[in-house]
């Protein structure tokens, strides 16, 4: 269940209350987000759509603890992340957020295995346990046989699947995907969207995705529209209905 | 160790650039090693100087002699326990480029005065009974492939004519820094053959009972010979060696200046290289931070890369310098003490690490302060 009216009962996984995000450019104040409310339950698959500059990525950054709002609060799984220090936010991100980026952002000098292993280096898992987790992650995205390949040896779709494996390997509370299919052809994009759908369906993951692609948005349960920093609409997709 | 693969592959990402940076460290540390060796060679006299030995020379100049009669007067000065003397010979062996120091020594006292030079008893005894006998340092013997029993001709310069000597023994140093390039022969042989300056010696070396008493003994010696035709100037052996080095100019300042410029340039080159390397990887560093790596971790990661470059390059440069010095003095005798001690290698390595740290700190700080959202926005 996704609400944008701020009237959630407090049981949602993600609760956003009245957040503003303002940038100062010279003497001018730019209001990127204004009085935004959002409730997302665990297991939801939410797509954010809107024109460029509407604040989609800024919202994603705030939800992922990469940036702080100018006003308002964000609570995830009971933690009010807007009250955390930078150091606490970093630790929080490692436990709760899996990021999937538009341009994959794999580290080119590391193999697929090593890229997926990155978040696990921050845990106390042994080498053997890390290996098991990484292999499981790569199995989910269907790339176990490519684990020793470098990003340059993979196609765009495969790279994004490695990116998704990296995002899920530490079993985060939710995934934030910033235009995950934006750099892919239709076929690869469909594969990635299938994969995200499976993560929600089979593994109960919560996925929040920014996209410009209506076909991609249609894969979500709910599409939330932003315009000029305001959430204007949250509608169930045909698939969810 | 689990972060190892975050450091090393990054260095191999631009192999030529990393190779050149490592090369810069290697060249700088090689130069450091050689400069340290040259400095050590000039300071060797000071380093090996006995704390309880004084050198007495003619007050006018070291090339002016002193009478042999001073030997007994010196020995009578309270605090003096032993006296020996020597004279610079300055002969030429085959070619003027084959320079090595030659001293006519007092056979009765010289060995006791310099116990750091070790000579087998039988060889010393053979030297004592052969008027034309000589003792050579083992480095000198090795240089000219001499062995005991060989006959060595020297062409006199101050003392004209051909002088021939029989090698009766070789000495070795008891410490690595001891000079084993000297050639000793008997002063009585020199005094007998030379046409002028008979009864004179080049300088005296005296041993004193208490090094803390050196100032008083020095004063007593120089006052004792004041107003004589051959006034003396006495110094501790260390001060004497230092004054010899000083005559050649401020070697220390020259070497420090060269070294300073080289290291400063290295700092700028490496700092610039690391800054470029960080700028190229802003997105990757941002991703690391996004997935939960701390600012401190990113700082250490960048510093670790610089330190690895410094360690590999610095280590290689110092190893090359050590190898170079193992071949011995390349100047043909001007720098007999051509040796790179372990403590200097350690100092050089520490210096490389400090330069690495300093070169990496600004790029590492900028990486640490990087805002994830800003870096991810840049494509």
Walk me through this protein's architecture.
The complex is a heterodimer of chains A (241) and B (379). Chain A contains 7 helices and 11 strands. Chain A is of the alpha/beta class. Chain A has a single domain, classed as P-loop containing nucleotide triphosphate hydrolases (Rossmann fold, 3-Layer(aba) Sandwich). In chain A, the strands form 2 sheets. Chain A has a 6-stranded mixed beta sheet with strand order 7-8-9-4-10-11, with helices on both faces. In chain A, strands 1-3-2-5-6 form a 5-stranded antiparallel beta sheet, with helices on one face. In chain A, helix 5 packs parallel to helix 6. By secondary structure, chain B is of the alpha+beta class. Chain B folds into 2 domains: 4-45 and 249-377, no CATH class; 60-230, no CATH class. Chain B contains 14 helices and 12 strands. The longest helix of chain B is centred in the first third of the chain and has 34 residues, at 15-48. The mean pLDDT of chain B is 90. Chains A and B meet through helix 2 of A and helix 1, helix 11 and helix 14 of B.
How would you characterize the largest beta sheet of chain B?
10 strands, mixed
Helix content of chain B: 40-55%
Radius of gyration of chain A: 18 Å
Give helix and strand order of chain B, one letter per element, not per position.
HHEEHEEHEHEHEEEHEEHEHHHHHH
Give the ordered list of helices and strands of chain A.
EEEEHEEHEHHHEHEHEE
For the record, the count of structural domains of chain B works out to 2
Total strand segments of chain A: 11
Q: Uncertain spans of chain B, ≥5 residues at pLDDT below 50?
A: none
Which overall shape of chain A is indicated by the principal axes computed on the Cα atoms?
Answer: globular
Biggest interface pair, residues each?
A-B, 26 and 23 residues
Structural class of chain A: alpha/beta
| Strand content bin of chain A | 25-35%
Question: How would a textbook summarize the main sheet of chain A?
Answer: 6 strands, mixed
Strand content of chain B: 15-25%
Oligomer: heterodimer
In CATH, what is the homologous superfamily of chain A? Answer: P-loop containing nucleotide triphosphate hydrolases
Q: How many separate domains of chain A?
A: 1
CATH class annotation of chain A: Alpha Beta
Distance between the termini of chain A: 12 Å
Strands side by side in the biggest sheet of chain A: 7-8-9-4-10-11
